[in-house]
Design goal:
The protein is α/β, with parallel strands linked by helices. The protein has 2 domains: 120 residues, P-loop containing nucleotide triphosphate hydrolases (Rossmann fold), CATH 3.40.50.300; 286 residues, no CATH class. It has 18 helices and 14 strands. A 6-stranded mixed β-sheet has the order 9-10-11-12-14-13, with helices on both faces. It has a 5-stranded parallel β-sheet with strand order 2-3-4-1-5, covered by helices on one side. The chain is globular. Pfam families: AAA_14, DUF4143. This is AAA family ATPase. It comes from Thiomonas delicata (Thiomonas cuprina).
Length: 426
């Protein structure tokens, strides 16, 4: 990817739709994921002015006199990095209550407003929140695929794609091999992808973490051990796709478990870490209730761990962990532009039988297991069968994503899929 390349974001139609009937649209996601580019692309088409609160003068004006600042704004305006002026949310609420015309404000924020309840509540009913992630593989390929819609479809899988004794030669997908590790190691941040080499991408990611700690974390909280956060991020990168263990994270630091827990929550607020909650069922009581930890982007994780695509390919254990996070984040990115709302979980019983990702849409469930190999056996469906027992008829599909060439059946509702369905049509 060259610096001049622009990849259209598949969430853009949702933003345009929101501006037609909602006074405020907020795009939130990690810094440098493309929020400003998206907002300005839409704004240029619809006559929006632009103000950034990374500008010291604009930020000071808004902080000093928020009422006067909002009163002087143009009719339609983009307010970039609005989390840097939290007082503004209350003032925007008053302005919207006075004039509820749709599409007045496009806000962007690099802190998760859903984890900042006072800010979210101040504009409840007046604001639509859109999550923007780093670039998905489907966006990089310019293929608006929606794997979740396919999995939840009554017609899944398309019969023409399933290899069987009567159709043994179907190979719609090619095995990726080391190219899969290259995708995982590159990640999805546009500025990192614009760098020409792995070494230059790693340098960008490391500078990125330092900048976030020095600027955004300071805006959100006053913490004593600011220098511990990059090291904590590296520890978390090594634990990605594992059950969250605060004791292990705290071990290298002379800090208490509650303090480390607070730091983890802070890193979640700026989208660097995510917790994947466990899925529960009354039909099975022996389920683990601990969340899993995932890094927000695998390119960032690889940079923090000091590993490139070759190193990842050589370390199969680490590759398996990061591939699971890669798939989880790809599904989350696709869900951000999909029509149906999805909730994400993991499944694990006390014997260690697990399913990496469980997706819920209404009363329906899909289970997804990730395998960093080119072959699949019936044993790889052990967790999915346990999930079938727990979920009953709610589970409509269970799939193993693998580095293979064909869609393979493994029993009623169970299939192996090439991992490239994440950026190709199923």
């Amino acid at each position: 990817m060259q610096a001049s390349e622009y990849h259209p974001r598949f969430v853009q139609p949702r933003l345009i739709e929101a501006l037609r009937d909602t006074p405020v649209a907020l795009i939130h996601g990690p810094r440098q994921c493309g929020k400003t580019t998206l907002a300005r692309a839409v704004g240029a088409q619809h006559g929006y002015a632009y103000i950034s609160f990374d500008d010291d003068v604009q930020r000071a004006a808004a902080q000093t006199d928020p009422v006067g600042f909002v009163a002087d704004l143009p009719d339609k305006v983009i307010l970039d990095e609005v989390q840097r002026v939290p007082l503004l949310f209350t003032t925007l609420k008053a302005a919207v209550d006075h004039d509820r015309r749709p599409g007045r404000f496009i806000l962007t924020g690099s802190a998760n407003v859903l984890l900042l309840p006072k800010l979210a509540d101040s504009l409840a009913g007046r604001m639509e929140i859109l999550r923007l992630h780093p670039l998905a593989q489907a966006e990089l390929a310019a293929v608006p695929t929606d794997l979740l819609a396919a999995l939840f479809s009554a017609s899944f899988p398309p019969r023409a794609h399933v290899r069987s004794p009567t159709r043994p030669h179907i190979q719609p997908h090619a095995r990726l091999g080391k190219r899969l590790a290259e995708r995982v190691a590159a990640g999805g941040f546009p500025a990192a992808l614009a760098r020409g080499t792995s070494r230059r991408r790693t340098a960008w990611y490391r500078d990125y973490v330092e900048t976030l700690v020095q600027r955004d974390v300071r805006d959100l909280a006053r913490i004593a051990a600011l220098d511990a956060l990059p090291r904590l991020m590296a520890m978390a990168a090594g634990q990605t796709a594992r059950l969250l263990n605060v004791t292990d994270l705290a071990a290298p630091f002379q800090l208490s478990r509650p303090t480390i827990r607070e730091y983890v929550s802070l890193l979640q607020r700026i989208f660097l870490l995510e917790e994947l909650p466990p899925w529960h069922s009354n039909r099975l009581s022996r389920l683990v209730k601990t969340p899993k930890l995932h890094l927000g982007d695998t390119g960032l994780a690889c940079a923090l761990l000091g590993v490139d695509a070759q190193g990842l390919w050589d370390d199969r254990r680490l590759f398996g962990q990061l591939l699971e996070t890669f798939v989880y984040q790809e599904l989350r990115r696709q869900a951000s532009w999909a029509g149906e709302r999805s909730a994400f979980f993991h499944f694990r019983d006390k014997d260690g039988v697990e399913v990496d990702i469980v997706v819920e849409q209404g009363q329906k469930l899909v289970g997804i297991e990730v395998k960093a190999a080119s072959t699949v056996t019936a044993a790889d469906f052990k967790g999915l069968r346990k999930l079938q027992d727990a979920a009953g008829a709610r589970l409509i599909a269970g799939v193993v994503l693998y580095d293979g060439e064909a869609v393979l059946p493994f029993g009623p509702g169970l299939h192996a899929l090439p991992i490239s369905v994440l950026w190709k049509e199923v």
